[in-house]
Amino acid sequence: MTLRLRYVAGVSPSKWLRVWNDLRPDLPLEAIVVEESAQLDAVVAGEADIAFVRLPVETEGMHAVALWEELAVVVLPKEHPLADAESLTLADLEGETLAPVQPDPAMTIELVAAGTGHAILPHSVARLHRRKDVVAIPVTDAPPTQISLLWPRERDDADIQQFVAVVRGRGAKSSRGSADDPPPIKPAKAAKLAAAERRAAAAKSGEGKGKGKKGGAKGGRPAPRTGAGAKQRSRRRGR
User: Fold this and answer.
1) By C-alpha distance, which of 195, 181, 183 is closest to 15?
2) pTM score over 0.90
């Protein structure tokens, strides 16, 4: 049996996959990147169990957990007059030509590099397809995009809930949260928490072993120091 995950470009699930593999080696996770235009097709068709999506998508009949927002950037040719700006606004881009939007963001950015115009994209997507002949500049007043985790209501079982808990950085037995939940913990911290839980479990299984031996002397006290260092300290005290 396999848990089948789909995700859009710009989402990097590798850290969550490592945590999942540590927690559930009995249930492998299959992760496949999909085109944004088809980001829910496999889930709707029953060919996938859960998906990271970039809103807006049709969420009827789905459980949805909002995860994070993505900053919008404008991608410009490197020789563009605005290419040296630290940030821009939508007003700064008025009158500028938009590059033809393609289903594949890499192709859209290629058209930008060719001088056909500019493109506004999520920062994660622009970073994924970065090139030396274009720049990506934050657009401070452009609406951000939202990444969410979606799965069918009829597919809401313990395995799905455990994966959702991993992504949200909560305990592995936690279920889907509410608006009062704290913000998700970053994947790197989730991995550290999982490693700490394994170390704690290993330490607990070894309780009682080696008691009274710590430090190498009776009663747990460190053994007295000997050698040249000890003799030198003794001579100093005798001065």
Assistant:
1) 195
2) no
Q: What is the pLDDT of residue 202?
A: 54
SS3 letters across the chain = CCEEEEEECCCCCHHHHHHHHHHCCCCCEEEEEECHHHCCHHHHCCCCCEEEEECCCCCCCEEEEEEEEECEEEEEECCCCCCCCCCECCHHHCCCCECCCCCCHHHHHHHHHCCCCEEEEEHHHHHHCCCCCEEEEEECCCCCEEEEEEEEHHHCCHHHHHHHHHHHCCCCCCCCCCCCCCCCCCHHHHHHHHHHHHHHHHHHHCCCCCCCCHHHCHHHCCCCCCCHHHHHHHHHHCC
Encode pLDDT of 159-170 as tens digits: 999 999 999 885
pLDDT, tens digit, 9 for 90 and up, residues 168-212 = 885 444 444 433 333 444 444 444 544 554 455 556 555 544 444
Q: What is the pLDDT of residue 200?
A: 55
For 72, phi and psi rounded to 5 degrees? -90, 140
Phi-psi region of 65 (alpha: psi -120 to 50; beta: other; left: phi over 0): beta
